Amino acid sequence: PPAQRRFPAAPQHVVLYPLVSKSLRNIAAGKDPLEGQRHCCSIAQLHEHYSLGYPDLDELQKNPQPLIFDIEVLKVEAPGSYQQDPWAMTDEEKLQAVPLIHKEGNELYRQGKVQEAAAKYYDAIACLKNLQMKEQPGSPDWIELDQKITPLLLNYCQCKLQCEEYYEVLDHCSSILNKYEDNVKAYFKRGKAHAAVWNVAEAQADFAKVLALDPSLRPVVSKELRSLEARLREKEAEDKIRFKGIFSQ
């Protein structure tokens, strides 16, 4: 069994423990530990949160009680093997971690682990977004970070395409194209997402833009357009059968 140590009970001020526990549960779920919390003092946080989202923590917040903590050692990691979560990194650590996380995402994608790859790309984007928030929008440093975010966001969109989460792809690709009107990959991925959700005119317009920017992609675009046309014919045939059944009743 894991090594276990019981610390002797001692009077401690633990009125804020429910908030701490919620943050730890967020971390375990891969979320921002401060998700849902405002930037205010701790006592104000207590009054602000009518519910923490966990009945046991809500009860403990209403009726504080002495607590005893059992701490178990589950794993011992070798020095240098532990990778911090993005929220816990310093600015310098975030910059150093991004290429490594990007590489891990690429390897997972090559292995067919699309969901896991998307999570890696998301972590790398989160690191850069956190740094970007500290810069003046449009400044050279802000633009440099944004140009690092864009390829990661496109990789993330590729994962979401394969996971059939098309509306997320539409949102992210549109945000890229609002800033970089000549991004061929963003037009192509957005075109595929439009086609998947039957936005035919929008898909055709995006694919036309791809060809205008890079004519060498004509074979790939032609394949996507043929696939869209075939799906449209199938849908029309299915609709005829469906409506025929309705009107014949």
UniProtKB/TrEMBL annotation:
TPR repeats lie at residues 184-217. Transmembrane segments: none annotated. InterPro entries: AIP/AIPL1/TTC9 (IPR039663), PPIase_AIP (IPR056277), PPIase_dom_sf (IPR046357), TPR-like_helical_dom_sf (IPR011990), TPR_rpt (IPR019734). Keywords: Cytoplasm, Phosphoprotein, Repeat, TPR repeat. It comes from the Eukaryota. Residues 7-73 form the AIP/AIPL N-terminal FKBP-type PPIase domain. GO terms for cellular component: cytoplasm. Interacts with RET in the pituitary gland; this interaction prevents the formation of the AIP-survivin complex. May play a positive role in AHR-mediated (aromatic hydrocarbon receptor) signaling, possibly by influencing its receptivity for ligand and/or its nuclear targeting. This is AH receptor-interacting protein. The lineage of its organism: Eukaryota, Metazoa, Chordata, Craniata, Vertebrata. The gene is Aip.
